[in-house]
Amino acid sequence: MREGEIIVMDPIGLHARPAAQLVALANEAASAVRIRNVTTSSQWVDAKSILNILTLGAEQGHAVALEVDGLDADAVFESLVSSIEGAESDG
């Protein structure tokens, strides 16, 4: 299992396109992927659902926690972290 906290860097947070990219990456994984908004003390949600991601209300500067459990956990965790940290909206 891999877990850790990441700061949302995208100016629009984890909404629309950044959320869709995150869900697409999570759905490619064999591992279970959960996420929560640490800043707002949200509950853990399944990161393979766009509706779950949108309910987190993760805005720029918020800390989110990721938990990836499965055989491909290391690779999946790293790709999700890169997506969250490096995502920038086209406006």
Helix run count: 3
SS elements, strand count: 4
Give the assembly state of these chains: single chain
Distance between the termini: 35 Å
Sketch the topology as an H/E string, one letter per element: EHEEHEH
CATH topology: the name is Histidine-containing Protein, Chain: A
The strand order across the widest sheet is 1-4-2-3
Overall CATH class = Alpha Beta
Q: Which radius of gyration do the C-alpha atoms yield?
A: 11 Å
Structural class: alpha+beta
Please provide a written account of the structure.
The protein contains three helices and four strands, in the order βαββαβα. It is globular, with a radius of gyration of 11 Å. It has one domain (2-86): 2-Layer Sandwich (Histidine-containing Protein, Chain: A), CATH 3.30.1340.10. The mean pLDDT is 92. The protein is α+β, with helices and mostly antiparallel strands and 91 residues long. β2 and β3 form a beta hairpin. The termini are far apart. Strands 1-4-2-3 form a four-stranded antiparallel β-sheet, covered by helices on one side.
